[in-house]
Amino acid sequence: MTDWAFWGCLPFLVAALVTDIRSMRIPNRITVSAWLGGLLAQSLMNGWHGLLFSVIGAAAGFAVMLLLHLMGAVGAGDVKLFAGIGAWTGFIFTAQVIMYSILFGAVIGWIIALRRDEAWMRLRKVFGTVAGVVVLRNLGIAKSGGGYLLKFPFMLAVLPAVVCTYLYY
Fold it and tell me: What's the pLDDT tens digit per position in 51-61?
């Protein structure tokens, strides 16, 4: 990944942060523009190799985030945005951003839970669900507990993750 790819992707991430904070949504005009812009930029700068680099990065970002979306952890806009991040920055950078985003998201979630005095209640529910799955060997228990998920704009975790990945890449 090169500096120009990071700086090219950054305006889309800032726009996504603003809209995610305001409405808890990331519109398609941002995500699709990021994806197409990454494909085009990589193709123009690096030819067929750049296009392949971009397609693999976009597919990886989309696929991993789609799994998280199906588990209820992120929204559909986040899934599409990570396809855009992957299109600009490639597979390895995107995988690192996903890892850092999850770590930052966990920290943000715990800060919110502690501020709301919900930490112990959430821990009890998590341990209760895990114990129910282990004792009863029924995964349906884990799926039915989704009503207590903590929601916040995931871009609050993604933007610092992108910056950390860029600094330590």
Answer: 999 999 999 99
Taking the C-alpha atoms of residue 141 and residue 21, their distance in angstroms, rounded to an integer, is 32
Contacts of 102 (CB under 8 A, 6+ apart): 157
Integer CA distances (angstroms), 31 to 27, 38, 65, 139, 140, in order: 7, 11, 13, 33, 33
Residue 113: strand, helix, or coil: helix
What gap in Å lies between CA 53 and CA 74, rounded to an integer? 25
Q: How far is CA 66 from CA 16, 61, 69, 132, 150, in A?
A: 18, 8, 5, 26, 19
Domain boundaries, given as residue ranges, for the chain: 3-168
Helical axes 3-23 vs 155-168, angle rounded to 10° = 160
Largest Cα–Cα distance of the chain, in whole Å?
A: 56
Cα 93 to Cα 54: distance, rounded to the nearest angstrom: 11
pTM (2 d.p.): 0.81
What is the per-residue pLDDT across 129-151, written as a single tens digit (0 to 9) for each?
Answer: 777 667 766 655 445 445 556 78
Structure-model confidence comparison of residues 113 and 122, the more confident one: 113
